[in-house]
Design goal:
mainly alpha, elongated, single chain
């Protein structure tokens, strides 16, 4: 049973590490690549991978949380499930709702680079607002994953061991 708990901690830790690394990739892409369009394409593709992997990993961990866990406290168990559901929801919303809207708004630019769109253009304002939402949704998922990670580790450290002493003393009964 410890293997399952350790594997669950590993999975959520890997996703959390990848999501944190994504922040560095996004910043580096805009700093290094010759155009913001190329950087945006790299960031969009990488974010899609982060969101889809978070969705899959979150669903796997959520399903695995229903495996019989004898030493788990109900409050920690349900808190973990709620946090994992929040990770799954944030990844799904980030990819399928906000990501789709960003793609739709971007398509309405008519092939122009985003830097050529006026700052007061309603489409650019909408794009920037959606981008902010995307950032906040990812941060929410990362915080939920971090909290779930600590709960999973706490549960694996809190295994109860039964110490049998005085097995044959019947005066306790």
């Amino acid at each position: 049973m410890n293997f399952i708990k350790d594997f669950r901690a590993l999975l959520i830790g890997l996703w959390l590490g990848a999501a944190a690394f994504f922040i560095a990739v996004a910043q580096s892409s805009f700093a290094v690549l010759p155009s913001r369009e190329l950087a945006g394409a790299v960031v969009s593709r990488t974010l899609m991978i982060i969101n889809l992997s978070g969705l899959v990993i979150g669903l796997i961990l959520l399903a695995a949380s229903f495996i019989k866990q004898t030493a788990a406290k109900p409050f920690l168990l349900w808190t973990e499930r709620l946090l994992l559901a929040l990770v799954v929801t944030s990844c799904a919303v980030g990819q399928f709702v906000i990501g789709s809207w960003l793609f739709y708004v971007r398509a309405q630019f008519g092939g122009k680079p985003i830097d050529e769109i006026a700052a007061d253009d309603p489409l650019k304002i909408q794009f920037n607002t959606l981008h902010e939402y995307s950032v906040w949704v990812l941060i929410t998922g990362m915080i939920a994953a971090l909290l779930a990670f600590f709960i999973i580790l706490r549960k694996s450290d809190n295994t109860t061991t039964v110490v049998k002493t005085d097995e044959f003393k019947f005066d306790k009964f």
